[in-house]
Structures are given as structure tokens and as C-alpha cells.
Amino acid sequence: MWEVPLVRQLNEVLLGVSSASESVDRWVWKDNNSEEFSIQFAYGFLIGEAKGGNQQMYESFWKIKVLPSAQITTWRVIENKIATRVNLERHCVAVKSNLCCLCEVLEESTSHLFFGCRVS
Questions:
Q1: Nearest-5° angle of CA 102, CA 104, CA 110?
Q2: d(C-alpha 47, C-alpha 55), whole Å
Q3: Which of 78, 71, 70 has the alpha carbon at shortest distance from 115?
Q4: What percentage of the chain carries pLDDT values higher than 90?
Q5: Which of 16, 51, 113, 120 is exposed most, by the fewest CB atoms within 10 A?
Q6: Three-state DSSP state, 79
């Protein structure tokens, strides 16, 4: 097999590698200055604090008394996080067609599906 010499060579190289630090590996939360996860920071991120943008809108939004599933779906629509055919294509997922699965006339984007499709 052609890869056997390559595997041996890789093993030789790796045997000579050592960590410069004796510290133990650990998880780091990169979006926080303290590098530690906190519920408070995650909540702040969800209400837009970390984005610096729509903080007031998100603060009000998360306080609305509706079913959590409806609230999360609405948040996903606002953030364009719905798995539409257009979004799937953007993330390199192969789809047969990016036309709306309901009307088959226009591209299936979040805005079309929730606000423009004559069938939905």
C-alpha cells in the first residue's frame, strides 16, 4: 500500500513533537473576555448585546409571553436561520431546485416562505 511509508514518516515526525506548555487542555468560550462560559453572557448574546445592534428589540422580544416554539421560530425568521432551499444552497447543501416547495414559482427564501408565498 502506497500510504504505509507516509504513515511511518508521519509517526516519526510526531514522535519528535512535544507541547511547549505543561498546562492541561481546557474548553475556552471565545466570545467572552474571561474565556469562561456564563449563562448571563449567553443571554446577553441572544438579546443582541454581543452584536451591539438590536439590543432593545431583543430585550423586549424575549420577554413576550408566547409559546417558546413560536418565539424561537420567530427569532429564527428574524435572523434568517430557517433551513430554506436558498439557505441550504448557501451552506453548500445540494438541493434539486431552489424553487419554493409550495408554489414552485420563486426561490424558497425565508422572506418568501413566511411573507411572500401565495400558498403559505
A1: 65
A2: 6
A3: 78
A4: 34
A5: 16
A6: coil
Q: Which of 64, 65, 110, 69 is nearest to 87 (CA)?
A: 110
Whether residue 109 contacts residue 84, with contact meaning beta carbons closer than 8 Å, is answered with yes
Task: Quick: pLDDT tens for 45-101.
Answer: 666 654 555 667 777 888 888 898 999 998 899 889 999 999 999 999 999 999 999
Taking CA 51 as the corner, what is the angle to CA 49 and CA 57, rounded to the nearest 5 degrees?
60
pLDDT of residue 31: 65
Beta bridge partners of 99: 107
CA 20, 23, 29, 31 torsion: positive or negative? negative
pTM of the model: 0.53
The residue behind cell 420567530 is: 74
DSSP-based three-state secondary structure for 87: helix
* Cα 79 to Cα 82: distance, rounded to the nearest angstrom: 8
d(CA 31, CA 45): 9
| Residue with cell string 411572500 | 116
